[in-house]
Amino acid sequence: MRHKLLFALSALGLLAGCIAAYMFSLQRPALPPVFSPSTNPFTHGIYADGIVESEQASGKNINIYPEVAGTVKRIFIEEGQTIRKGIPLLLVEDSVQRAIASQRLSEAQAAQTLLEQLKAEPRKENLDVAEAQVKAGQANLKTCQDALEKQKASYDINPKSVSKDAFDSAINAVAVAEANLQVAQRQYDLAKAGAWIYDIRNQERQYNALRNSYLSSQALLSKYTLRAPSDGVVLSINTAIGSYISPQGTYDAYTQGSAPVLVLGTPQISFHVRCFVDEILVPRLPPPSKIKAQMSIRGSNVRAQLDYVRTQPYVSPKIELSNHRMERVDVRVLPIIFKVQKPKDINLYPGELVDVYIGE
């Protein structure tokens, strides 16, 4: 009985092994590719890496850097938003600079008020006071002269009726009254003449200096608000409310370097494609008038014809695609810019890598 059981188990094991060998020997058909690999459409075309950019007359995308450093207080826009020229994009904390500008304005207004006061002289009330002092001086002189005349008449009748001391005092009183009248008259003439021209000129210069100081502080205050330099689309916002930014940009935690605070592009109707042609392939490039190019969007079967725009006539190290400025680069490339209309059947964004073939 025992030998029969062992024989049965051996037979089952052999059968299972045969079945397993048969199953594993079957070849399943390969899955069809999701998309076809990029192929060269030209007989003698050359390959180049390309990167999608917003359409610009020169340069790449519009990188926005603040001219002042500070903490981000408000962000007025969102990524992907279409914007118009001049609208506010971002506000840097400006309370200190706003207070300085307000102080400069008050100082300029005070200087302007004093200048207007000088130009408005003489003041009627001051003239009235000076004129009253002249009349008082005239009345005092008349009183002193009458007293002297009385003493002189008495002295002529009887010299012993008036003492020499009283007669001299009367003469001195008339002299003092005449001097006081002259002072009052000159004070009246001075008040009537108004402000001295040199005082007005000095005050004008002080007002202009304070006004220019206010305009300077106001211009600096306006730089705390970043505004759109042109119509376009917000491609990237690399900061957040409460973050610190400076004229060097903002700290990027991914690349551990500086990045622009905002990146703007033109309306995404058409794009530029910047191709990087290896320097050893540059001699094989056709003349600009005969250049033809085709772009393949990675991950799809979409192909698009490219229109030649311009060549950046400077062969530079190939670091644009890696964004690492400290790496050692032995490959140098020639940038060539093409234009392409936005495909209707697939998404395409600035910064996307594409395969490009260039021929003639």
Q: Low-confidence parts lasting 5 or more residues at pLDDT below 50? A: none
How are strands sequenced across the largest beta sheet? 1-12-16-14-13-17
The assigned CATH architecture of the domain at 122-194 is: Orthogonal Bundle
Query: Which CATH class of the domain at 122-194 applies here?
Result: Mainly Alpha
Which value, in Å, is the CA radius of gyration?
47 Å
In what range is the share of β-strand residues?
15-25%
Number of helices: 5
H-E string: HEEEEEHHHHEEEEEEEEEEEE
Averaging pLDDT over every residue, what do you get?
Answer: 85
First-to-last CA distance: 86 Å
**CATH topology grouping of the domain at 122-194:** Helix Hairpins
Helix fraction, binned, reads 25-40%
Q: Describe the main β-sheet briefly.
A: 6 strands, antiparallel, barrel
Q: What class would the helix/strand composition place it in?
A: alpha+beta
Secondary structure layout plus pairing:
Layout: H1 2-25, E1 46-54, E2 62-64, E3 70-75, E4 82-83, E5 88-92, H2 95-120, H3 124-157, H4 164-193, H5 197-222, E6 225-227, E7 232-237, E8 244-245, E9 250-252, E10 257-259, E11 262-265, E12 270-278, E13 292-297, E14 303-311, E15 316-317, E16 332-341, E17 353-359
Antiparallel strand pairs: 1-12, 1-17, 2-11, 3-5, 3-8, 4-7, 5-6, 7-11, 9-10, 12-16, 13-14, 13-17, 14-16, 15-16
Helix pairs in contact: 2-5, 3-4
